[in-house]
């Protein structure tokens, strides 16, 4: 569980690093799954604007789905966002050698600014060490408390670099201004990134009704994994579904 000091840092600066959340062996499997998914996507959609970014990673490999069951991550979400939070989007962030990626623009991950109320949180799992040389993650401390996005000059004058080890977990307020740095090394820098939102909000995709959700490794996720996919807040598509007995209803009670 994160400490009171980490909570205070998160509230003040907008981001924290929680060390050693994933085992080295898990990181290796995740990286293998991600590389395969990137290759398949590059072959299927070579001209998309976010080329190299894999969407819906939980459907692209058993290990990438199992990340949703991570106890430390779910405890952080319960503390910093909501115990009934769900996934808005689950994708990859890979900085290619000698360049940045689609995340290299200065941006926030949530368009909503509501003073005193957090709607989204981002989680990054580095699958390679994050260093200043390979792009890390640049961010402007405290910018999550502002409605306006810092201009480029201010951002780079104030920017800090998140550096950490593969298997650590970066947690940040989705209103935090950030950008992927330039990877000046000869190897790609890989990571998984998940945007979580409150349970009453819409997800980027209807994960529960996507064909990929019928895969066996999705069906066997634990209660946290299924909740994060949105399986507790599904909308009925017929009166028959609406009038199901309480224990069988698609929208579970107490979801916030």
Q: What is the strand arrangement across the widest sheet?
A: 1-6-3-8-2
Give helix % range: 25-40%
| Secondary structure category | alpha+beta
Q: What fraction strand?
A: 5-15%
What's the overall average pLDDT, rounded?
Answer: 95
Distance N to C terminus: 22 Å
Number of beta strands: 8
Q: Please, what is the oligomeric state?
A: single chain
Alpha-carbon Rg, integer: 18 Å
Low-confidence stretches: none
Structure annotation, total helices = 8
Principal-axis shape equals globular
SSE ordering: HEHHHEEEHEEEEHHH
Largest sheet: 5 strands, antiparallel
Structural notes for this entry:
- The chain is α+β, with helices and mostly antiparallel strands.
- It is built from 8 helices and 8 strands.
- The chain has helices at residues 4-13, 24-44, 62-66, 71-80, 152-158, 216-219, 223-229, 239-242, and strands at residues 15-18, 86-92, 120-126, 137-139, 160-162, 169-173, 178-179, 191-197.
- The strands form 2 sheets. The protein has a 5-stranded antiparallel beta sheet with strand order 1-6-3-8-2. Strands 5-4-7 form a 3-stranded antiparallel beta sheet.
- The longest helix has 21 residues, at 24-44.
- It starts with a helix and ends in a 14-residue tail after the last helix.
- The relative contact order is 0.21.
Task: Outline the secondary-structure elements.
Blueprint: H1 4-13, E1 15-18, H2 24-44, H3 62-66, H4 71-80, E2 86-92, E3 120-126, E4 137-139, H5 152-158, E5 160-162, E6 169-173, E7 178-179, E8 191-197, H6 216-219, H7 223-229, H8 239-242
